[in-house]
Amino acid sequence: MPIINTSADVGYGSVIAITTGFSVFSEAMANIPGSPFISLFLATTALAGITGSSSGGLGIALETLSSTYLKLGLNPNAMHRVMSIASGGLDSLPHNGAVITILVASKLTHKDAYKHIFAVSVIAPLIASIPMLIAAVLFY
After folding, report:
1. Has this prediction a pTM greater than 0.90?
2. What pLDDT digit, counting tens, does each position of 90-99 carry?
3. CA dihedral angle for residue 121, residue 46, residue 19, residue 51, rounded to 10 degrees
């Protein structure tokens, strides 16, 4: 079941990456004012949220956004760190394969347990990523 859920999420994300709307999304993300690291973070975490998968979102972001941000002169090592951390922000939305598997295995519903999952796997990682973003903007 976990393998099927994860595979479905990655496949879903791959389909999204080839749509016309995705190119509009990519362009909008690259044009966010301020540091490119912030727009890279937002784009990667949004892709992880859309796909419901950290690894799927990161894979799509690396494949489709890397060249754009490398052309902006970002350090590839810093980009990888920012993208890796960003992919763990919105990846645990209700349609995430791991969330569904955990709820099925524990015999709980989204209504009963998702608020706790959301606090631990969405809010906490997003807050924890703020110092990393500040460091990336200041030092790279």
Report:
1. no
2. 989 898 878 8
3. 0
